[in-house]
Amino acid sequence: MGYAQSGTRSSILGREIGRRLVTEVDRNQVTRLHQKLKHSPYMANRCLAVLSHMMNCAEKWGLRPDGTNPCRHVERYREQKRQRFLSAAELAELGKVLSEVERERVDVIRGRMKGSCLVNLKDPWGRIRKRGEIPGVRVHDLRHSFAAAAAGAGSSLPIIGALLGHTQPQTTARYAHLAADPVRAVAETVGARMAAAMAPKSKSADTVVTFEPKRSQLRRG
To answer: Which of 69, 73, 96, 142 lies 20 to 30 Å from 47, alpha-carbon distance?
Structure first.
């Protein structure tokens, strides 16, 4: 089982450097850890980011000399950006499974040990995903789908960012093409109506023609 499948970032870092003093962690150790995770670039880079933050805090608190962060100059792996949105059919199936679980009172979200708190949704989500036959769908894909639905409803990027808890506008910018679709649709509708209102009217359409009966016809009546 690879590191990417065997735990979270905190557990991976704990296994690798948890028994070392903060002053003992050097760049060679960080590089070896990063290389062990090369088959999962995303996890490797996230672990590196967490460890770098820890080392910065250690410097700030006087636990390491300034400028000695061992994560510096360790190049991050190139990640393949992935945006997965659930289709209407997949959302319907997911809703069906969640309803069934609720009716059956199946406890799919629980800790590893009785009475323990849940710290990772990976296993519960795996059970739900298997039951709903939606393999490959990550929990994070639900956020993408939520954002896509908000964009489809005409929400602006700042609103979508607030809903997702984004603190940086560039994080929400990935949904710009989705938010542009409803805007474009409204713009085209408004433009068509204004063009119709401003277009010259034809005589047949603008003139009301009335037909009056001849006097001879009135006399006959």
So the answer is: 142
pLDDT recorded at residue 161: 85
Residue 145: C-alpha distances to residues 3, 55, 83, 178 (Å): 28, 35, 9, 11
Residues 6+ apart with CB under 8 A from 165: none
What is the sign, positive or negative, of the torsion defined by CA atoms of 10, 13, 19, 25? negative
- Residue 72, CA distances (Å) to 11, 56, 141, 192 in order: 22, 10, 31, 56
Q: What is the CA angle 127-131-137, rounded to 5?
A: 70
Phi and psi at 165, nearest 5°, equal: 75, 25
pLDDT range class, residue 21, cuts 50, 70, 90:
very high
Would you state the structure tokens that stand for residue 114, as one six-digit string?
Answer: 């009785």
Cα-based torsion angle of the residue sequence 52, 58, 63, 66 in order, rounded to the nearest 10 degrees? 70
Please choose, from the candidates 13, 95, 87, 5, the residue with its C-alpha nearest in 3D space to the C-alpha of residue 47.
13
Per-residue pLDDT reduced to its tens digit, 106-164: 665 565 667 666 666 777 788 888 888 888 888 888 888 888 888 777 788 888 888 88
